[in-house]
Amino acid sequence: MHSLKGKRVLVAGGAGFIGSHLVDRLVDEEPAGLVVVDSFFLGCDENLVDARLRFESLRVYRLDARDLAAMRQLVQSERIDVVFNLAVVPLPTSLDYPAWTIRTNIDIAVTFCELARCCDIQTLVHFSSSEAYGSAQYVPMDEKHPVIPTTPYAASKAACDQIVHSYRETFGIDTYIVRPFNNFGPRQNARLFAGVIPTVARRAAMGEPIEIFGDGEQTRDYVFVSDTAEAAVRLYHVEASRGRIVNVATGCETSVNDLVARILRILGKPNHPVRHAASRPADVRRHRGAPYLLKELTGFEAAQLSDERLQKTLDWHQRNGAI
After folding, report:
1. 61 counts as catalytic
2. From 133, 153, 176, 236, the catalytic residue
3. Per-residue pLDDT reduced to its tens digit, 53-73
4. Secondary structure (3-state) at 291
5. How far apart are alpha carbons 39 and 42 in whole angstroms?
6. Please, what is the average pLDDT of the chain?
């Protein structure tokens, strides 16, 4: 069994939504050092307040993870053992800036693969995305599901996964890939390129109609962000995770229409106006992940979407002025 206790750990994208929750979870592992690298394109320092209180020696660097020379200097000076790579340009950005999204995401993956190949780090934990699968060909979608990406973002994530796999096969790097389905929870970006939950909550708070792309019957498998962080850490402990892609999913799908209705009910605005707009380009139609491999390897199961966790998410956004 592998342990993170006493290791020196770097989280790329650690000031972001999922990354900051992973940083919080890593504090519990009692690492010798904990370092965050973030470009702050979408991440923000406020996401690390809790981690700073609990791990006073947390170090944060504003760096572009594509810069191999800068990252090599950093991991050597900080004596990093393990990298969790969550640095990414997200899906909505790829609809406006596809070439930049693709190049950036691939370059980041290559940077950390090179550091692992050259033994500058011991282990690389790479974060993928369920978007790499494209729309479900069958459900639940297990790790053997065909990879048929439909957006530039999804294609970049699928390419990154193949790059990481190729480095393991060719150079024997110590790595595994975490493939989360749709995350939600506190700290989710509510500004530029915001997700559906903070967007709906913000529009409701401002009295604006809720806009749903397409007919709203497209489904997603919503995973609470702390469950994704828990899964990523537990997989590190297990030797059998190495060289694998592992879904983080609940096995339950929810349509956008149902999600919007639940949010509005929790907000006490069940009759708030909702309108439908044109479908978003290349939007996946159906996602329902298979959580079985994660449970087999770690014994851990992500909880299904609940009103309690939706309420917790909405409360955070309200407290922090995001909606």
Report:
1. no
2. 153
3. 999 999 999 999 999 999 999
4. coil
5. 8
6. 96
